[in-house]
């Protein structure tokens, strides 16, 4: 499958702070890519940089980001800001973490859902009304005619997130960016939102980039997973392969820290804290917290991203031989 959206050797430096360093990933139509890692690892920043949502720092971005337009991959970083704005909402949809802060409390659902459709699809009157009701039904909101007149505070947290998804899907985007969309929700509603996005993807055939710190959650819905830490990709492969054969010490530590129902198993933790965004160092970015440190090069060289056993679909950035 050809990629519909992605980044290639994307780097971002702000002053002395290396926010992103040579990040590459892509997602194809009908595929879900999971991007995981602790807070500050660069997950969201890679998407924001690629989508032109960091205009103040655009000159600090190197590498490339692309979107397939008319069957051709076109560079987003070479586009004028006005052209990228036309793509956000129409070709790239966004669902953010907290619908309470993402929705305008002074505007009705109808006003907020109409905005993108009027801008990109030029619908009005009866056609617009039918599209609005169709979108709310699509995301599982009953009695759409009444809900369109509601304000965000009149809706539950799960319903607000469904409205956010409806806004993201309003112009039939090629790719949906879901940035921690279930973090503010309880587990029951979280499961409903995950199932909703999966069903919508099957129905609409869009690509999905799901950003999360929850590796267990991403493991349930992603076809491939990218593990980020300190602004770098440390491991990337198919989801089943990642859980069956994790090759980076950080990935192994994340998997070991998952809670289980077995009370006899002590919850594992990763000692130390994630690195501050400082100047890039010529060593393994995970070195200070690594339990192995089995190769002396880890302290003096930055490991390259290499294929595991010659398998180009499984990449890892480490010198350590992990069990």
Question: How many whole angstroms does the radius of gyration measure?
Answer: 21 Å
Overall residue-averaged pLDDT value: 91
By DSSP (H or I, 4+ residues per run), the number of helices equals 11
Strand order of the largest sheet: 6-7-8-3-9-10-12-11
Largest sheet, described in full? 8 strands, mixed
- Structural class, please? alpha/beta
User: What percent of residues adopt helix (DSSP H or I)?
Assistant: 25-40%
Q: What is the distance, rounded to the nearest whole angstrom, between the alpha carbons of the first and last residues? A: 33 Å
* Number of strand segments: 12
Oligomerization status of the protein chains: single chain
| H-E string | EEEHEEHEHHHHHEHEHEEHHEE
Strand content: 15-25%
* Large-scale geometry: globular
* Poorly predicted spans: none
Structure write-up:
With 323 residues, the chain is α/β, with parallel strands linked by helices. 31% of the residues lie in helices and 24% in strands. It has 11 helices and 12 strands. It has helices at 43-50, 81-87, 99-102, 109-120, 125-138, 144-147, 157-169, 187-204, 215-221, 239-244, 249-256; strands at 3-14, 17-28, 32-36, 61-69, 72-75, 92-95, 175-179, 207-212, 224-229, 232-238, 306-308, 311-316. The strands form 2 sheets. The chain has an 8-stranded mixed sheet, with helices on both faces. It has a 4-stranded antiparallel sheet with strand order 2-1-4-5, with helices on one face. Strand 11 and strand 12 (311-316) form a beta hairpin. The longest helix is centred in the middle third of the chain and has 18 residues, at 187-204.
């Amino acid at each position: 499958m050809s990629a519909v959206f992605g980044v290639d050797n994307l780097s971002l430096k702000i002053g002395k702070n290396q926010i992103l360093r040579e990040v590459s990933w892509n997602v194809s139509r009908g595929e879900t890519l999971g991007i995981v890692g602790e807070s500050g690892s660069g997950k969201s920043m890679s998407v924001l940089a690629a989508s032109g949502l960091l205009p103040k720092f655009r000159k600090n971005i190197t590498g490339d980001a692309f979107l397939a337009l008319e069957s051709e991959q076109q560079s987003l970083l070479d586009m004028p800001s006005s052209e990228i704005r036309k793509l956000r909402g129409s070709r790239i949809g966004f669902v953010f973490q907290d619908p309470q802060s993402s929705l305008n409390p002074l505007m009705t659902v109808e006003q907020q859902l109409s905005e993108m459709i009027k801008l990109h699809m030029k619908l009005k009157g009866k056609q617009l009304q039918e599209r609005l009701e169709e979108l709310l039904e699509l995301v599982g909101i009953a009695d759409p005619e009444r809900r369109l007149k509601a304000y965000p505070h009149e809706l539950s947290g799960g319903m607000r997130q469904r409205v956010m998804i409806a806004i993201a899907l309003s112009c039939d985007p090629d790719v949906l960016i879901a940035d921690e969309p279930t973090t503010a929700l309880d587990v029951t509603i979280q499961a409903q939102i995950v199932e909703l996005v999966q069903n919508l993807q099957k129905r609409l055939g869009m690509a999905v980039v799901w950003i999360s710190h929850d590796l267990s959650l991403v493991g349930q819905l992603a076809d491939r997973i990218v593990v980020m830490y300190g602004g770098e990709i440390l491991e990337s492969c198919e989801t089943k392969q990642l859980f069956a054969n994790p090759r980076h010490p950080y990935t192994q530590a994340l998997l070991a820290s998952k809670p289980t129902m077995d009370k006899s198993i002590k919850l594992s933790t990763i000692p130390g804290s994630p690195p501050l965004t400082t100047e890039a160092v010529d060593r393994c970015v995970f070195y200070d917290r690594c339990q192995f440190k089995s190769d002396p090069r880890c302290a003096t060289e930055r490991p390259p991203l290499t294929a595991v056993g010659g398998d180009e679909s499984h990449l890892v950035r480490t010198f350590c031989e992990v069990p």
